[in-house]
Specification:
heterodimer; A: 159 residues; alpha+beta; Arc Repressor Mutant, subunit A; Glutaredoxin; four-stranded mixed sheet; 48% helix; elongated; B: 626 residues; alpha/beta; Rossmann fold; Ubiquitin-like (UB roll); five-stranded mixed sheet; 24 helices; 22 strands; 38% helix; 16% strand; binds flavin mononucleotide; binds FE2/S2 (inorganic) cluster
Chain lengths: 159, 626
């Protein structure tokens, strides 16, 4: 745990202990920890001299921040206008079904996959679009999306 | 020490001239997704294997062939794109496996690989050069011109195209008043949505009394279905920075911020690099262009909130707070970021500034009376050529969708003018245009008159398989998700509107639903605090205006002509296609299908729960939705 606090310290230092840089600080913390863990955030509040409520207020306001761990593979499916018109909802439904997820439960039980629905990835020319970790997959169909997910499952050791 | 831009340009051009070929590969998001980086690497490998020397532009080495990587060239549908200079041979849909042939045929033997060329849809002729491709020749690419022709990572490339000349002039030779006047005279209006005259905005800030002043570049681009600003930041980030330097000189700012949405990692990377390069050259920081003046730019990544595109919310976000809007006045020009005078401009607005400032610029002569210059649009949806385009204000949908976009595609893949149902313009704050507007000149006033807005430039084309009630619901869901919750009218009003739309889509609506929806729409429009709420009802109002019978068909006949509303669907078995295998009957979870091999099968509409399982199971496509 103290290890983690040291990591928080390093980030705080990089941003000059400046609470107005809070969003940058949280972005970096999320990169380090994968999410925003509660204890570390309370510690961070202390270090910045602001209330934990302010931190959780900001963290819950922005869609990019998450307070619980995400799956090893982050699948972002675009449901922006262009993708919607090109039937992204069929892809979303297929992947939800395949991974046993729904709009309330977005991370699979094995901790392998998290699905995130986003409004526009700015690759609308290739709609519908899906991003797995950093790789953009354009002009998707439900079948292609399923194939990609099954491929990952297989490479992660079967089931 | 003054900086000699001409020398930098001349030495860059000299260096480029000593390469026999320059290969420009599109490194926009679309092309990268289609594998352009593998193509980029493959070229280096194959060229070296053929015994030619090859280098990458940034290394600045001598070689036979130099590899460059551009920003988005706009023709995303046909990517990855490869252009071979000096001639400008234009290959599309290039895969790594094509590279061997291109190098052997084109670079070694001087032949053309015909199968990779664009084919003219009308004449069926192959088009050899990039400057002859109709998709481009039918546009006026001015703001986007360099985007796609330069390597965004190389500041010298931008300088060689005349970059930073206007910034230098603004810093060294012009007064703040002259700068503002020049921008005012050009007629440039904000491209971020509201269309406010840029020169006027700057004049307010110039006259404001404030210890410190800020200029902010709004790169939040939240409108889903739009990617113009992304492409500019990725493909020509220096133009944006140059615009900011000019703005800073016009209003007297000493600090600039670029706010980029987090979904655009490549844009963040490119614009950060560009700012570092500009600082290294002495265009940013202390003593810019040797003038003794100070101006620097910082880049901040957003964190995923649409409302942060609204200027007061954006400033809260830069201050490290929840991105909630504040009532205006006070206007940012008087009291903005950290309480100081602040000017906020959109990415495309700022990238247009160096163009309008140039001596003898004819940019302002393009366009219409109330909207001068050009506008970029992200053309997406059911159209043949999706991508990024730029046309003068006053262009028509016919020009954009048919001439540049190549026509409207049906779900079955056919292209016919009659496929065109509507285009959504202006995103969640906008409205729709229909076939009756196909020859309407697009400018701020003209589009507003028919109940939509130019907005930031998203154009989503829709065919007849699109249900307009669903589209209205889609935007309502979006704004409802993104409503920050500060004002009740927007938070609750959008929620109720969404529920009413769901009633219509799911068959619960009655004769009161549409009037109630309309009343609520006007109430939210009037009562909301910020632009998000005020404009949230627009898609509903606009679709009701043009597609009222479609709404009524849903409400009174419980029927969706586009067949997209599942709950209203009527599943029937087409006896001509049915092979009487009985699979549907066995699949139906609710026992709604009955019959026998002799008399065939039928679906009892009273029992059918419209789950679609039978349709998915039928191998002969015999189950149809009516
Ligand atoms: C909800 C909402 C979202 C907005 N999103 C953006 C945006 O993503 N990009 C943008 O440039 N302007 C956006 N705006 C407009 C800005 O508030 C502001 O008017 C604009 O950045 C001014 O720049 P301009 O004068 O150069 O157009 C938005 C406004 C509202 C109300
Ligand atoms: S709408 Fe999906 S990438 Fe823009």
């Amino acid at each position: 745990m103290s290890d983690n606090f040291a990591k928080v310290d390093a980030i705080v230092k990089k941003y000059d202990r400046n609470p107005s840089k809070l969003i940058g600080i949280l972005q970096e913390a999320q990169e380090v920890f994968g999410y925003l863990p509660e204890e570390e955030m309370t510690y961070l509040a202390n270090q910045l001299g602001i209330s934990p409520a302010r931190i959780f207020g900001v963290a819950t306001f922005y869609a990019h921040f998450t307070l619980s761990p995400k799956g090893k593979y982050l699948i972002r499916i675009c449901d922006g206008t262009a993708c919607h018109v090109k039937k992204s909802s069929d892809i979303i439904a297929a992947l939800f079904k395949e991974l046993g997820l729904n709009e309330k439960k977005l991370t699979s039980d094995d901790g392998l996959f998290t699905i995130e629905l986003v409004a526009c990835l700015g690759a609308c020319g290739l709609a519908p679009v899906m991003v797995i970790n950093e790789k953009v997959h354009g002009q998707m169909t439900p079948d292609q999306a399923l194939a990609l997910v099954r491929e990952i499952k297989a490479s992660e050791g079967g089931n | 020490m003054s900086i000699n831009l001409e020398n930098i340009a001349a030495s860059f051009n000299e260096r480029m001239d000593q390469h026999k070929y320059r290969i420009m590969i599109c490194g926009g998001t679309g092309c990268i997704a289609n594998g352009s980086m593998e193509v980029y690497e493959k070229f280096q490998e194959v060229i070296a294997a053929k015994g030619m020397s090859v280098s990458v532009q940034l290394d600045k080495h001598e070689s036979d062939v130099v590899m460059s990587c551009s920003g988005c060239q706009g023709f995303c549908q046909r990517g990855p794109l490869v252009t071979i200079y000096p001639e400008g041979i234009f290959y599309t849909k290039v895969k790594a496996s094509d590279v061997e042939e291109i190098v052997e045929e084109t670079l070694v033997k001087g032949n053309i690989v015909e199968r990779l060329l664009v084919v003219d849809a009308e004449t069926q002729e192959h088009i050899k050069h990039v400057h002859e491709v109709p998709f481009y020749t039918r546009q006026n690419r001015i703001v986007l011109e360099n985007c796609g022709h330069i390597d965004a990572r190389d500041i010298e490339d931008y300088i060689a195209k005349g970059g930073y000349v206007q910034a230098k002039r603004a810093v060294l030779e012009m007064t703040d008043e002259e700068i503002c006047q020049k921008v005012l005279d050009s007629g440039l209006k904000g491209r971020g949505g509201a269309g406010f005259p840029t020169g006027l905005k700057w004049t307010f800030a110039r006259k404001a009394v404030s210890e410190k002043k800020y200029i902010i570049c709004n790169g939040d681009e939240g409108d889903p279905g739009a990617f113009m600003d992304r492409s500019l930041m990725e493909g020509n980030p220096h133009a944006v920075l140059e615009g900011m330097i000019i703005a800073a000189m016009g209003i007297g700012a000493s600090e600039g911020h670029v706010y980029v949405r987090t979904e655009y990692p490549l844009a963040v990377e490119r614009i950060k690099l560009a700012a570092d390069e500009a600082r290294r050259m002495g265009f940013l920081g202390d003593n810019i262009f040797g003038s003794g003046k100070h101006f620097d730019i910082f880049i901040m990544e957003g964190a995923g909130a649409f409302v942060c595109g609204e200027e007061t919310a954006l400033m809260s976000s830069i201050e490290g707070k929840r991105g909630m809007p504040n009532p205006k006045p006070p206007f940012p020009a008087n009291k903005g970021l950290f309480g100081y005078s602040t000017t906020i401009n959109n990415v495309e607005t700022l990238a247009s500034v160096p163009i309008v400032l140039a001596e003898g610029s004819t940019y302002g002569q393009l366009g219409t009376e109330n909207a001068r210059g050009t506008k970029t649009f992200a053309l997406t949806g059911n159209v043949v050529n999706t991508g990024l385009i730029e046309v003068p204000f006053g262009a028509t949908l016919r020009q954009i969708i048919d001439d540049i976009g190549g026509g409207v595609v049906d779900d079955d893949g056919t292209v016919k003018p009659s496929n065109f149902k509507a285009v959504q313009i202006g995103g969640p704050s906008g409205g729709c245009l229909t076939p009756e507007h196909i020859d309407l000149p697009l400018d701020y006033a003209g589009v507003q008159k028919v109940g939509a807005i130019i907005g930031s430039g998203g154009l989503v084309v829709m065919n007849h398989q699109t249900c307009m009630v669903q589209i209205a619901r889609f935007f309502m869901q979006f704004t409802q998700n993104e409503s920050c919750g500060k004002c009740v009218v927007c938070r609750e009003g959008t929620k109720q509107m969404l529920d009413l739309l769901d009633d219509i889509i799911e068959g619960r609506a009655d004769e009161n639903t549409i009037p109630l929806l309309e009343e609520l729409a006007y109430a939210v429009q009037d009562g909301a605090l910020c632009g998000l709420g005020k404009t949230a009802p627009n898609p509903v109002i606009s679709t009701l205006r043009y597609f009222r019978d479609e709404y009524e068909d849903h409400v009174f006949n419980k029927h969706c002509a586009a067949g997209r509303c599942k709950a209203l669907a009527n599943y029937v078995i087409n006896p001509e296609r049915c092979k009487k295998c009985s699979l549907c009957m066995r699949t139906c979870p609710n026992g709604a299908i009955s019959g026998s091999r002799e008399e065939g099968y039928r679906i009892d509409p009273a029992k059918c729960i419209k789950c679609g399982a039978c349709q998915a199971a039928c191998k002969f496509g015999a189950i149809e939705v009516k």
